[in-house]
Structure formats: C-alpha cells, structure tokens
Write a structure and sequence with these properties.
Length: 263
C-alpha cells in the first residue's frame, strides 16, 4: 500500500512538472510573439528637438547716466502697469513712466538708496508679446528654416500640445538660436518657463518604416519563415518612434524584434 501511494505521488509530481514546463514554453512563445512588429508604409516627419525658454520681445529698464538717489517708488515686483503709469522718481524730479502696458518684473533699489550709472532700477516687460527661444546644435541649426512648423509641450501641462512656427534663426555669441512664435500662450505662461520644442524639418510620404526600438547599430533581427535573420539597414528620416528604411532587405511580412523581444 505504501509503495502504491509513493508511486502515485511520484506520478502526480511528474505530471505537474510537465504541465509547468509546457506552460513556461507557451508563455515564452507568446511573449516573444507579442514583442515583434511588422514594417509598414507611411509618412515620417523628422524633427529637431530642444528645450525652449519663454521670452518677451519688449522690455524697458530704468537706468541712469549719473549717480542719483531713489526718491520714491510707485511700483513693486509683479505689479501690472499701463502706459504712462509712474514707475520711479529720482532726486531732482526725474520721473520715469511706463512706455507700454506690461508687468513689473524687477525692482532693484529701495527709496533713499543711491544708484550708480547703468544699474537697473526698475524693469517692465510686455508679457502679452511672448515667444520661445531655443538653442540648437550646429547640425540642427543647418536644417532649421524660417516658417517651419513647431510642436511645443510644457512639462507641467502634459497632453496640451501647442503649435507654432520658426520666426527667426540666428547666432549670438557663437550660440545658435531659433525664435518660435506660438499662438495661445496664456497668461499662466510666464517669461522664463521652459518647454519641449520639436521643429519639423522634413516630411516624407509613403516610405517603408520600421520601429526605432528594433534598431541596434543599424541592424535588426527578424523572424522570416520560422528563421531568425539579422539585417543591415541604411536609415533615413527618424521621427522618434519610426525610422525610414533607405537600403536593406526588409520585407513587409518580416516580424521585427523590438527592444526586450530579441531572441
């Protein structure tokens, strides 16, 4: 009787192990199949990416040419002012007024303090006239042109993508810059805030595309007719998710292994 029970337990254990092994194989196959993607024909838009900063294009700073004392301040930082509103009065009845409607973004001195030449006393910015400035790498700057469409995304406002266009490309102190005009920059978007910028430099239509996650040093691995094949490719435009195939024996029926799904 004991021998029978022992034999029965061993049989049950073997069956369980076989079932576990079979299940593991099935899960492995399904996982591998789920991590392959087929090439496709479609459009690809290549973009130059950068981190942009919100700027204003009209700024007024109160400065002096001689040493004087602040007699009276009419504003504080953050105040909204209209054109003609008084900003600061210096000794000798020198009164400075706002030349346009804007916001006071800097007040450096207090009343009765002396001010030396070329020191900023009060700064006013026209926050209704905002743009985005983005620094470019040299290779990117060579491809950016005035009028190109731009996608803008503020990190703190995920999902709300704004559109704009390149208004200028130029160099300043050996730095390559682009100015971006963006419609719909609300009052909550303040000068100095940063945004992710994508400048669309080229769009190609109906080209063969593969996922970027399938590429590794210009090579992809595919399942073709139950075989694993490595292919060397020449890649063209890339939009971040998909890459254009310029040269290489990629077929529409090839199952490309993406990151995490390589054999």
């Amino acid at each position: 009787m004991r021998a029978f029970l022992l034999h029965h337990k061993i049989t049950v254990l073997i069956v369980c192990l076989l079932l576990i092994g079979t299940l593991g194989i099935l899960l492995s196959v399904n996982s591998r199949q789920a991590q392959t993607v087929l090439p496709r024909y479609g459009d690809v838009t290549e973009a130059i990416y950068g981190l942009g900063k919100v700027r204003t294009d009209r700024v007024y700073e109160v400065k002096l040419a001689v040493v004087k004392t602040v007699e009276r301040l009419f504003v504080s930082e953050g105040d909204s002012v209209k054109q003609g509103d008084p900003l600061v009065k210096m000794e000798g009845n020198a009164l400075f007024r706002a030349p346009f409607t804007g916001v006071v973004t800097q007040v450096v001195f207090h009343e009765s303090q002396p001010v030396f030449p070329q020191q900023v006393i009060v700064r006013v910015e026209d926050v209704a006239r905002k743009y985005i400035e983005v620094a470019l790498e040299q290779q990117g700057a060579l491809r950016v042109r005035k009028g190109q469409p731009v996608r803008v995304l503020f990190e703190s406002v995920r999902g709300e993508q704004l559109t704009g266009k390149v208004s200028a490309v130029f160099a300043r102190n050996e730095e390559f810059l682009a100015h971006i005009e963006v419609a719909g920059l609300g009052d909550n978007v303040l000068p100095g805030m940063t945004a992710d910028v994508a400048i669309e430099v080229e769009t190609k239509q109906n080209v063969l595309l593969i996922p970027v996650s399938a590429l590794s040093n210009g090579t992809v691995k595919v399942r073709r007719e139950d075989k694993i094949v490595s292919l060397n490719l020449k890649i063209g435009s890339v939009d971040g998710n998909w890459a254009e195939v310029l040269e290489g024996d990629v077929r529409e029926t090839d199952a490309l292994f993406v990151s995490g799904g390589r054999p």
